[in-house]
Write a structure and sequence with these properties.
This protein has 139 residues and is of the alpha+beta class. The chain has a single domain, classed as Cytidine Deaminase, domain 2. Helix 2 packs parallel to helix 3. The two termini are 26 Å apart.
């Protein structure tokens, strides 16, 4: 399988911002809704659900993004995070998780679990619609 390198950007956390409800997470990830290429974002949380930092993983493709799992786990360790929330967009407008989305979520959850970090949720944003892996029982 050909792996494409993805440019990653880390965004500093907003001091005191707490990510304790799905609506706050949706507000944090809202910029993904308008992008025309798939992009993933990761929010790193402390034990009290305060935001420690963000990372974006943009793609050059409209219908896929590769997530560097080792980098995400490394960030979680560097931030001393207790949890991670992942979000990505579907420019197609369909918020239904693909088979690849499901497989990626399982791999990421296992990798994070191995270092005692919880994958809190994976949100798929598509236009005004959102699918939460946690809400539909996939996490």
């Amino acid at each position: 399988m050909h792996q494409r390198r993805v440019a990653l950007t880390t965004i500093p956390a907003v001091p005191g911002h707490t990510l304790d409800a799905e609506h706050r997470a949706l507000a944090l990830f809202a910029p993904l809704r308008d992008l025309t290429t798939e992009t993933a974002m990761f929010a790193y949380l402390d034990p009290k659900w305060r935001l420690l930092g963000l990372r974006t993983a943009p793609s050059t493709c409209a219908d896929m993004v590769e997530v560097p799992i080792r980098t995400i786990v490394g960030d979680a360790l560097a931030f001393d995070a207790a949890g991670v929330v992942m979000a990505h967009n579907h420019p197609s407008g369909n918020p239904t998780p693909s088979g690849e989305d499901r497989a990626l979520t399982r791999r990421l959850a296992r990798a994070l679990d191995g270092v005692a970090v919880r994958l809190v949720d994976h949100l798929v944003l598509a236009g005004s619609q959102t699918t939460s892996f946690r809400r539909i029982g996939l996490l």
